[in-house]
Amino acid sequence: MRHYFLGMAAGYSGGEWLQHLFTMGRKKDLVELTSFLGKKYDGEAILCKNGRSGLVYALKAYFSPGDAVIVNGFTCYAVYEAVKAAKLKPIFVDIEKKDLNFSVKTLEKAISAKPAGIIVQNSLGNPVDMKAIEKFAKEHKLTIIEDLAHCTGVKYPDGREAGTVGAATVLSFGKDKSIDTVSGGAVILRAPHDKPVESPSKAPKASDFLRARFYPMFGAFCRTLTYIGLGGAMMRLFVKIHWVEKSADNRLDTTRRLSKFEARLALKQLQELKRSGEDPLRDFYLVENRSGLLKELQKKGYYFGGFWYEKPVSPERYYKKVHFDEAACPNAVSVSERIINVPKFYTRTELKPALKLIKEYMKEGENE
Ligand SMILES: *Cc1c(COP(=O)(O)O)cnc(C)c1O
Q1: Ligand 1 pocket, 259 CB below 6 A?
Q2: What is the pLDDT of residue 1?
Q3: Which three-class secondary structure state does DSSP give residue 154?
Q4: What is the 81 CA–ligand 1 centroid distance (Å)?
Q5: CA 228–ligand 1 middle distance (angstroms)
Q6: Fewest CB atoms within 10 Å of the CB: 33, 79, 352, 362?
Q7: pTM for this entry
Q8: Cα 145 from Cα 167, distance rounded (Å)
Q9: Is 147 a pocket residue for ligand 1 (Cβ < 6 Å)?
Q10: pLDDT class for 368, splitting at 50, 70, 90?
Q11: Where are the beta strands (DSSP E) in the chain?
């Protein structure tokens, strides 16, 4: 029980909900974040309602309707949604089990579909071999878009930082992302483009603004209630009455900008960011008999719910819409059935018994 409550709004510790509730945002915060991102990623920055809306800006700037783009075969529905909104055709490419990313080897198979671009996502903060991907992209004239939802601050093996390589860089500030202000996103257009790009002009909707303000407080409230066994029910109620929104349901909207207080919080997180390839967003293991393992973990009081990802394109409730070609991505299918993420809110000592149990469920020779 003690562990279960830790899972709710876990990204916000201690009194951070207070800060979230009362941080004043000013127009200056939008200007400062825009300028910080423009400098850091060397391009024209636009602050958006969420990551997927930012991705639409990037895709529209560098591709034409009908173009095909390569998407990691193990991803979030938000990416698919953005590709569709930009009127492009997604080509899902299978992943390698070791880092959950496509590789030059798996990418070869996508070339016959004549892609114009490639979205690099560095799954769960595990960097791709960018040097090899870049060479591949050059050979096949692919425009690279870097999606930093999982990997802001992560370094590629050759030392370059994620977001400093492609034509455009997209950030998400959504729940549980590497920069987390509950919602929000940005895009930096790095390469020249000949299509006019208008920034979002409208302020956030009041309902979205309030949800972003209150979510960390609701999380803290529900965590407290869990001691009397009511936290989970309370959170479900909040979701039901739309005071809390599940991440995947955050609507794509390219007309709304980021809220001012989220700009301020995002800037602070970006300035303090010290993430590397050795510090992934989430650790993962591939196990056999996952449901059996989860039952045992639960018995020991652990809360390991919410996998990234439970389907090759997640969450499950949107998976059918994608018409995912499972035969083309066997590794992605297998990983989605076997992956278990280690939550960040446990200390090393707390995790020790859990990791020992997980090891017993692993296939030998994998996860090295
Ligand atoms: C979450 C996510 C996004 C964008 O998310 P938003 O909810 O729109 O901010 C983009 N790419 C990946 C891989 C993600 O996981």
Answers
A1: no
A2: 47
A3: coil
A4: 10
A5: 34
A6: 352
A7: 0.95
A8: 6
A9: yes
A10: very low
A11: 44-48, 68-72, 75-76, 89-93, 117-120, 143-147, 168-172, 185-189, 283-286, 313-314, 339-342
Mean pLDDT of all residues in 234-257: 92
Instruction: Report how far ligand 1's centroid is from the alpha carbon of 147 (Å).
Output: 8
Q: Measured from the CA of 173, which atom of ligand 1 is nearest?
A: 9
- CB of 152 closer than 6 A to ligand 1? no
DSSP state of 108: G
pLDDT at 365 over 70: no
Q: Indicate the top mutation candidate among 46, 71, 147, 251 to test ligand 1's pocket, ranked by most ligand atoms within 8 A of CB.
A: 147
How remote is the CA of residue 333 from the centroid of ligand 1, in Å? 20
Is it true that domain 22-189 has CATH number 3.30.930.10? Answer: no
Which is it for the CA torsion 161, 156, 151, 196, positive or negative? Answer: positive
Average pLDDT over residues 350-362: 94
Q: Return the amino acid letter for 177.
A: K
Mean pLDDT of 11-26: 86
CA distance 268 to 315: 30
CB atoms closer than 10 angstroms to residue 316: 13
Q: What is the DSSP string of 244-258?
A: S--GGGSPP-TTB--
Cα 162 to Cα 38, 201, 203: the distances in Å are 15, 28, 29
> Picking from 84-88, 346-350, 362-366, which range would have the lowest pLDDT averaged per residue?
362-366
Predicted pLDDT of residue 346: 84
Q: What is the mean pLDDT of residues 355-361?
A: 95
- 3-class state of residue 47 by DSSP: strand
In angstroms, what is the span from residue 65 Cα to ligand 1's centroid?
Answer: 22
- Specify the domain boundaries for CATH 3.40.640.10 within the chain: 22-189
Q: State in Å: Cα 227 to ligand 1 middle.
A: 32
Q: State whether the beta carbon of 56 lies less than 6 angstroms from ligand 1.
A: no
- What confidence score (pLDDT) does residue 333 get? 98
Question: Mean per-residue pLDDT for 32-53?
Answer: 98
**Residue written as token pair 């370059």:** 160
